[in-house]
Amino acid sequence: FSSRRRHTRYGTVTGVQTCALPIWGAPVRYDVVIAGSGFSGSLLGWLLARHGRSVLVVDRQRHPRFAIGESSTPTADFLLAHLADRFGLPELAPLACWGTWKQSSPEVICGKKRGFSYYRHFSGQRFSDNAQHDLSMLAAASSSDHWSDTHWLRSSVDHHLVQCATRAGVSVLENTTLVAAQFDSSAHLWSLQLQSVADVSEGSRNVQCTWLVDATGAGQAISRQVNNPFDDDWMRTRTNAIYGHFRDVRGFSEAASADDPFSGDDAAQHHLLDSGWCWMLRMDNGTTSVGLVEPERLSGMSQLSVEGDNAGRGATPRDYFQRRMRQYPSLGDLFGSLSCCAPSDRMGFQLRLSRCRRRATGPGWVLLPIAFGFVDPLHSSGIAHALSGVLRVGEALLQDLKECQSRLQHYSQQVAAEVRWLDLLTGGCYRAMPDFRLFCGFAAWYFMAAIEFEKQLAADPGHWPQGFLQTGDEKLCAAAERCFDLCAGTLPAQQSATVFDTMRRELEPWNRVGLLSEHLRNRLAHTAAPKYAAIAERRGRQPLP
Which pTM value belongs to this model? Predict the structure, then answer.
């Protein structure tokens, strides 16, 4: 994820064949110019090029490069498989699940994700649970290791996808930024000026395009040129984060239980603290993505410094992270003397994760979801939301001008509603987080929305009558809103139980899988094979007409 305030340092390595454009001289003309070569920008460029469009992708950095936002979900798998199927990208299809990924592309690094695991820790105490699992929850997302979701080592996955796009005919300019843009509405034509960030003496490059797409974090590439400021004061979710990659982090074995439906380490692992939570995502090469997320109002991260100083003022992110882990003995033991290996040994940090732009589209331009808005890593919704945008924007840009404009206007309305829905689903969990029972109760709204949306995808992956994650289900959204109002921090035991029962009743009209059932004791097993299995196994097929 990215935001308007980013504090980190990146190392870069040459790895993508780039195009040569004339400096000064007559501009080169493209159908689409995409700013940002992360996975969503590269995927969009790839599918457009596969269908005959001329595409240029521009990025300030070079691949492979560090990135956060690595946890996939069944929703993302459905969308990835459908993208491969719909647009004729058979090389993409096996990445829809861990088993086929490892068989077809073992060189692209990922991790096995059987589902979600949650553990409630208390300061100064080792983790301890009871037979009812009152302080832990496991929610399975797949029926076996083969059909597992994945964690994406983004430096590897993004690099792989930009190479796929290049082979399909996409031109790529790395270490390059957009410095000026002018739109001629009568000709529906952008005139862009690009500048190398590695060598400013190189001079500028001039290109033209019909459509300009922002696929960068926080939409920073084009929002100044099109007067599209942030509009996010309304957001309820306001968190800060410290993050990095570690090697050889031990598994959380002391939490294992005989009735766990899968190993809690093979998951998007959430360690809930007295304030905030810590994620752990384990990759198959021994790398673990780790992050500490805290509510803005309760966090001390605003005082951090990337460098720190010798007097102990302005602690580094690593100092802060290590101090917080030592407060929870079971977590402190996992790291011991380990040091962060990326983005630097001091770790990265980011203030105010949640953000949203005023508009997602305008005359001749469009923002992909990651550029328009982001809420928080809690529900691992980022990859799925990004892929949903690639699908919709890709479909639009392959139409004639009139149809494209109509589709993009509809997309703009949809994506704005989706960020608000994700903000509610996430903000409610933070509001309930001090009480683990209520946290599990509110998290069920996200699981329910995902399950219902996946049913839509299984029926017809190209038709979503209730929208992404059921954004358009007004009754579901209203019920979740009522439950949000009930969550207000730590409540007395009897009041907490009453609120939990109310949540369970509110969820009942949609709950056909037993979420929040007492007899399951916070262990939610998944038994059905995923509906995208056939696509992943046969490695895609020819595009639909």
Answer: 0.93
